[in-house]
Write a structure and sequence with these properties.
The protein has 367 residues and is α/β, with parallel strands linked by helices. It has four domains: 92 residues, no CATH class; 123 residues; 92 residues, no CATH class; 36 residues, no CATH class. The chain is 44% helix and 17% strand. It has 14 helices and eleven strands. The strands form two sheets. Strands 6, 7, 8, 9, 10 and 11 form a six-stranded mixed sheet that branches. Strand 7 and strand 8 form a beta hairpin. Helix 5 packs antiparallel against helix 6 and helix 5 packs antiparallel against helix 8. The protein is globular.
């Protein structure tokens, strides 16, 4: 598909579902009659079905019509809501690829001190790096001077599907106010709470011993090279019963400890998000924790101990761009310096307005 999309290719997303039995003629008529556009204009027209598990793309390349199709074996495509019959959305090529990649994202946020000349007495205040990623994709950092939900509206515009995060309340609020968002929690955060309490409580050590088999199952699945279907079956058969028993145990342990004790706090934390912690068993592509996105944050956490603060709010935006490039390169085994040298040395690439083909994930095969 990337060879078909050129820098000037327009991409239209049909927001109303379409019968996937339609072929060349049916999709041609759909573009002309419902979207009120010209099918032979050279644009790409993207359609989905009611369940958002299938996609078809119609495209005229100058000599004939292409029809391309994709079916998800698990999950659904993230699709913006319709505004009525004939409604459509113009997409960039990068947004199209993100949409076709599925409906699972990991997200986090980390504070960084920043000097703001407009802030009283020139004191430092907190800015926030927000990384977002799919497990096998690039990591995109954005920068905002807020940790509030307003940034999620922009960051996740049009997204629906599984969103894996920590227990920060803004994600719950975001999911409650929107259809199609399923929150998934992080088992590593739960384990971390009991790890803090293990020196003071035998019950905390018992809980850690019960969590361990969950990670052992995940390790064995990775080592066996299991596909998503096999992972889902194994989790349903082996992990889910462990989680059900562990929930019962947590309720008993909680009753035996004071609310302000480390074990009591750990139980309260775990039980408050337990339904979300079990979500990863629903599909084989979901992760038991969000360690991948937390690993992406680690360089900034180490860095701010050295450089202490960002010198201006605008510098935070530049930092987000740099972290996006460097961390994405590292995830795909690319030397960031070689990647930048390759991209910056080609003047034709620098003049392009569309980054198609230039992300670290796309350029990884060249290195």
């Amino acid at each position: 598909m990337e060879k078909i999309i050129t820098e000037g290719t327009k991409i239209y997303l049909a927001l109303e579902p379409v019968d996937m039995r339609k072929g060349f003629n049916g999709l041609h008529a759909q573009v002309f009659e419902h979207l009120k556009l010209k099918p032979l204009s050279g644009a790409m027209f993207v359609f989905t079905n009611k369940t958002r598990t299938r996609v078809k793309i119609l495209h005229w390349d100058g000599s004939g019509l292409w029809v391309m199709a994709k079916r998800l074996e698990e999950g659904r495509f993230s699709w913006p809501k319709s505004a009525g019959a004939g409604s459509k959305l113009v997409l960039g090529s990068t947004a199209l690829r993100m949409l076709l990649d599925g409906d699972y994202l990991q997200i986090d946020e980390t504070p960084i001190k920043v000097i703001d000349p407009d802030y009283p007495n020139n004191k430092t205040r907190s800015g926030w790096l927000w990384p977002i990623s799919r497990p096998a994709g690039d990591v995109v950092f954005t920068w905002r001077m807020t940790r509030g939900s307003s940034h999620l509206d922009e960051l996740l515009a049009g997204f629906s599907g599984y969103l894996q995060s920590d227990a920060y309340g803004v994600y719950d609020k975001y999911a409650r106010e929107r259809e199609g968002i399923v929150l998934s929690a992080c088992m590593a955060h739960i384990r971390r709470q009991f790890d803090k309490a293990k020196e003071q409580s035998q019950d905390a050590r018992r809980v850690l011993a019960q969590i361990a088999p969950l990670y052992r199952i995940e390790k064995e699945l990775r080592e066996d090279g299991a596909d998503h279907a096999q992972i889902e079956r194994t989790r349903q058969a082996e992990s889910l019963p462990i989680l059900e028993d562990l929930q019962k145990q947590l309720i008993k342990v909680r009753q035996a400890h004071l609310p302000k004790s480390l074990t009591g706090k750990a139980c309260d934390y775990a039980l408050s998000i337990w339904d979300k912690a079990k979500v990863y068993c629903q599909r084989g592509d979901l992760q038991i924790d969000k360690n991948l996105i937390e690993n992406a944050i680690r360089p900034s956490a180490i860095g701010k101990k050295n450089w202490l603060f960002v010198g201006h709010p605008n510098a935070g935006k530049r930092s987000a761009i740099i972290y996006s490039i460097v961390i994405s390169c590292q995830r795909h085994g690319i030397c960031p310096g070689q990647y930048l040298e390759t991209v910056l040395a080609d003047q034709n690439l620098l003049r392009r307005q569309d980054p198609t083909g230039l992300t670290p994930a796309e350029m990884a095969p060249q290195f």
